[in-house]
Amino acid sequence: xxxxPVQFTLNGSEKAEFIESGTTLLHALRDKIGDTSPKGxxxxxxxxxxxxxxxxxxxxxxxxxxxTCNGADVRTTAGLADGGVLHPLQRAFLDAFATQCGFCTxxxxxxxKALLDRKPNPSREDVxxxxxxxxxxxxxxxxxxxxxxxxxxxNSQNAA
Amino acid sequence: MSLVLQTFSSVKDAxxxxxxxxxxxxxxxxxxxxxxxxxxxxxxxLVRVTxxxxxxxxxxxxxxxxxxxxxxxxxxxxxxxxxxxPAARAVGGPAIRNMATVGGNLFAPAPYGDFAVALLALxxxxxxxxxxxxxxxxxxxxxxxRAVVTAVGxxxxxxxxxxxxxxxxxxxxGVSVLSIAAHLQHTADGTITSARIALGCMADRPxxxxxxxxxxxxxxxxxxxxxxxxxxxxxxxxxxxxxxxxAWYRAEVLPVHLxxxxxx
Lengths: 160, 264
Prior knowledge:
The structure holds two protein chains of two kinds.
Chain A: E1 3-10, E2 13-20, H1 25-33, E3 51-54, E4 57-60, E5 73-75, H2 88-95, H3 105-118, H4 124-130, H5 142-159
Parallel strand pairs in A: 1-5
Antiparallel strand pairs in A: 1-2, 3-4, 3-5
Chain B: E1 4-8, H1 11-18, E2 23-25, H2 32-37, E3 45-49, E4 57-60, E5 63-67, H3 72-77, H4 85-89, H5 94-99, H6 102-105, H7 114-121, E6 125-128, E7 131-134, H8 135-140, E8 149-155, E9 162-168, E10 176-186, E11 192-200, E12 207-208, H9 210-216, H10 223-232, H11 247-263
Parallel strand pairs in B: 1-3, 2-3
Antiparallel strand pairs in B: 4-5, 5-8, 6-7, 6-8, 9-10, 10-11, 11-12
Domain FAD-binding PCMH-type (chain B): 1-159
Protein name (chain B): FAD binding domain-containing protein
Pfam families (chain B): CO_deh_flav_C, FAD_binding_5
């Protein structure tokens, strides 16, 4: 099958690939580009493990065709750390023991980042709503909610 | 996966391409890419349109027109569409709402399609290249529709005359047990003069509760006066059975939730 070119920015770096038409962004990221931070969970839009931020909006990479991302700004969890320094959300997830098996974590962190980018001081209800499309089978959610609230507090203290 | 995406700048060209067998329209991807991921081999080709008109929201007086590519998130945050925000927020989680479109929701099989339930209660019109048609006729014929939906139009309800309820087992985001939208007009003393009630999950697509609508006329919203409407709301329903709830359960709880919505 003829391949089609796709070009987008991934975590600030230009990426250009030839892919088969109809390839999902999740497949392109993981298997063509090598960014395995978005996870393939249900491939049905139910679990949120593949969540990425495209042009500032949280999206599911398993339901997004890579060809529709031409020219887009794509952000994944792999691009959050600054060298060896973790992003405040990553640090808070570690400190709060908000990961157990860790499979849902990259999606949770991107959903939380989309929230904090829009609303730096969210309420607990805001966090619950923002994470409502992401499923975790290990933690019971509470440590994740606490981690996001902690990261938000850390951000606002840094900004003050 | 052998899926080919064709991108067009005009609806006219996309409509021509949609006539080929195995071709479906790609809106936000939450239905057709999901189907392809699940192994639905009836989908071999996808068509999309990049015309920015499809993403426009136009509100003029009490008339609203939503382009078919307008997302649930865009509706939920639009200041002039506040009456519809609860129905838009009822769809999926935040990521799904950033992707799922008005046009796609019209095609979503039960238990999905909660926003279309609201549009049915509002007696929306569905526009395609060939013209507009009432949403009820559109929903009835949607399985054989081969034309790109371009927009939906409706009269904006007064906030107090429009009610929407989605029942799900998981909060804040879960698949529908059922959804109900009610558009009610009443006189100053609260007597109902017109009622349009739409139900989700009570068939394979949104449907109206016409007997209950008739039973509400002339009533005020008290437990006693709405009782006949609650008794009648199950008439003609054929609820779905899925892992969320059985048809029996959905039919049993429908009058309870309609009662709560009307008395709220």
